[in-house]
């Protein structure tokens, strides 16, 4: 591998890491246009293993926007990222796979869920995201499988599959 190819590989890995981190931030912040922008035009996401649905990224953005209203405070932690770049005889290709573990604690909006009074989920300032030191109501863990494509200068998600391994829900 030449220095030029090695440098290109490092730059690809950094760009891919930015996409994965951007995914977590977009979901946690409810930034659905940013979520959609991370996907290729024909990109799809599969949340069925975590009790969700599967479909085109645009549809998934709408579904997540509705579903995540129940959890106004959420924080994805995506760790143990294993990036595999397509190898074209010593040169990086335009495809990559990422396997990454996740931990996702969330606070339930009890009013939206019909189980409490408004504001009960967040005893901090409205919209602050502070939960008054209370533990999360709902925590999930598992593994993401990302398939990415280089499209022009950008890396974009072509397929995303969630493999939920465990969850702890209220009362569990």
List its traits.
elongated, alpha+beta, 7-stranded mixed beta sheet, 7 strands, 172 residues
If you had to describe this structure to a student in words, what would you say it looks like?
This protein has helices at 3-29, 32-37, 57-67, 110-113; strands at 39-46, 54-56, 73-74, 77-87, 92-107, 138-151, 154-168. It is 28% helix and 40% strand. With 172 residues, the chain is α+β, with helices and mostly antiparallel strands. The chain is built from four helices and seven strands; from the N terminus they run ααββαβββαββ.
Distance between the termini: 52 Å
- Helix percentage: 25-40%
SSE order in H/E notation? HHEEHEEEHEE
> In one word, what is the shape?
elongated
| Structural class label | alpha+beta
Strand content: 35-45%
Main β-sheet description = 7 strands, mixed
Assembly form of the protein: single chain
Radius of gyration: 18 Å
Query: Taking all residues together, what is the mean pLDDT?
Result: 87
């Amino acid at each position: 591998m030449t220095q030029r190819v090695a440098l290109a590989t490092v730059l690809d890995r950094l760009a891919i890491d930015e996409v994965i981190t951007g995914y977590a931030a977009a979901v946690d912040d409810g930034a659905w246009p940013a979520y959609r922008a991370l996907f290729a035009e024909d990109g799809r996401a599969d949340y069925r293993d975590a009790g969700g649905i599967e479909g085109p990224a645009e549809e998934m953005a709408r579904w997540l926007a509705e579903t995540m209203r129940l959890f106004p405070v959420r924080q994805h932690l995506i760790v143990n990222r294993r990036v595999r770049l397509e190898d074209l005889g010593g040169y990086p290709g335009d495809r990559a796979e990422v396997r990454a573990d996740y931990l996702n604690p969330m606070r339930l909006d009890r009013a939206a869920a019909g189980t409490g009074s408004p504001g009960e989920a967040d005893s901090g300032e409205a919209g602050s995201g502070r939960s008054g030191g209370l533990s999360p109501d709902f925590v999930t863990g598992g593994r993401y499988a990302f398939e990415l494509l280089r499209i022009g200068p950008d890396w974009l998600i072509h397929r995303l599959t969630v493999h939920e391994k465990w969850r702890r829900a209220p009362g569990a």
